[in-house]
Amino acid sequence: MIVFSLLPILATGGAAALGYAVAVYPIRQKVNLFRQTETVGTLITDAEGRGALLGAYEKSSGLDTAAFDDVLWSVRTVMTPFVGFAPAPGTQHNAYIDARQFRGRSVLTVPKPPNVTRIFLIGASVAFGAGATSDERTIGGYLQTLLDQRPPEPDRRYEVFTFASPGWSSTHERIAIENRISELEPDLVVTLTGVADCVLSRLGRNVLWSFSFNDHHYWELLNVALERSGFEAMVNVQDSSPQRVPPQTVATRLEKNVRLASAALSLENARLHVFLQPGIPTTAKALSSRERGLRDSFDGVAYHQECYRHIRETLGVAELPANSAFTDLTAVFDGIPETQEVFLDRFHVGDHGNRAIAKAIVDSIG
């Protein structure tokens, strides 16, 4: 009799557990997907594949194939005002993100100390340093080192801060400059841009009014929660099309973001220098066999080249605001021989590439 009396309780408990699992499990899946980080090692697990990347790194880094397990590639992000998302503060594998979401351990103080030239590097995953062996070997880290190596100037020192996030377009960069960086007493803001705009535009997205890849994590998570709660999913209002955005429009939208960012910085007597980011589709570097394989397997080469042509024609000849400048970095690797690898994939680079880009930036900003 006791057994039979427990059956309704067991059935109720089982149904509750099943209902909980059905309701919560999809949410947990989305949360886990969003919270996880990726390293170069989790993306490339075989020793041969890892070994093929070592040529893109400086020997002084001490990197070996096992160390790739701690080299951050995809950073965990958090919801961030107005830009939507940015790196989550804390230590993520070999990267340190401070409370302001800047990469590295340099301490920013407000008001700015006397005789300091404060520089901010803004951009997407390459500017962030995806695949960098340390905070010091990101583009921002090399910028700081190279500026510190300049002949000493009386009572003058440099501060470099990296505020970047994988997946950001030029619109994210502009909003970050307008709403965040302009409030932190910048002297110069350097943006490394172009690739993300081309990637998103190739998918038919309007970078001025669309979701990023990271935004879709939040979108999917909220929609799962809404559906499990009996509500309708959110309506997708982004401006997107199955057709690729015309390359001329890509350039026009980028120019608009440049002008708006320049206007915000002009209010603070700060300068903006825009650098067009290099990549395998647009480089004239003598590619290694592995790098050639990355280029030849990409069906977006012609589109990226055409977008870059229009960006150069637009920003290179436009009468930009007095406090802004434009430099094309697509040729930065052109003198590097085939035997010296630079690219990790079609757009990201190792230590050699980060150092070369940083040097080109230093040479351009004067």
Tell me what the structure shows.
This protein is α/β, with parallel strands linked by helices and 366 residues long. It has a single domain, classed as SGNH hydrolase (Rossmann fold), CATH 3.40.50. Helix content is 42%, strand content 14%. It has twelve helices and eleven strands. A five-stranded parallel β-sheet has the order 8-7-9-10-11, sandwiched between helices. A two-stranded antiparallel ribbon has the order 1-2.
Quick synopsis:
This protein has 12 helices and 11 strands.
List keywords for this structure.
alpha/beta, Rossmann fold, five-stranded parallel sheet, 14% strand, globular
Furnish the topology, listing elements before pairings.
Elements: H1 2-35, E1 38-39, H2 40-43, H3 47-53, E2 72-74, E3 77-80, E4 84-87, E5 90-92, E6 95-97, E7 116-123, H4 125-128, H5 139-148, E8 157-164, H6 170-179, E9 188-193, H7 195-202, H8 213-228, H9 247-266, E10 271-276, H10 289-296, H11 301-317, E11 324-328, H12 351-365
Parallel strand pairs: 7-8, 7-9, 9-10, 10-11
Antiparallel strand pairs: 1-2, 3-4, 5-6
Helix pairs in contact: 1-8, 5-12, 6-9, 7-11, 9-11
Low-confidence stretches: none
- Secondary-structure element order, as H and E? HEHHEEEEEEHHEHEHHHEHHEH
DSSP helical segment count: 12
**What is the CA-atom radius of gyration, in angstroms?**
23 Å
Which architecture per CATH?
3-Layer(aba) Sandwich
- Under CATH, the homologous superfamily reads SGNH hydrolase
Q: Kindly report how far apart the N and C termini lie.
A: 89 Å
Strand content: 5-15%
- What would the principal axes of the Cα set say about the shape? globular
Largest sheet strand order: 8-7-9-10-11
* Secondary structural class: alpha/beta
CATH topology: Rossmann fold
Largest pleated sheet? 5 strands, parallel
- The domain tally reads 1
Estimate the mean pLDDT confidence: 91
Classify the oligomer.
single chain
